[in-house]
Amino acid sequence: MKKFALLGFLFLSFSAFAQPTIKILESGKRVSFRGLSVVSDKIIWASGSAGTVARSTDAGRSFTWMKVPGYEKMDFRDIEAFDSSTAIIMGITAPAVILKTTDGGQHWRKVFEDTTKGAFLDAMDFSDEKNGIIIGDPIKNSTLYRAFTHDQGESWNLYDGSIVDNPNYWALKEGEAFFASSGTNIRIVDTHTVILASGGKASRLFYKNHFEPLPIMQGKESTGANSIAVYKKQKAVVVGGDFSKDSIGSNNCVLIDLGKKAVFSIPQTPPHGYRSCVIYLDKNNLLSCGTSGIDISRDGGMNWELISKESFHVCQKARKGNAVFLAGGAGKIAKLETR
Question: pTM score > 0.85 for this model?
Answer without folding.
Answer: yes
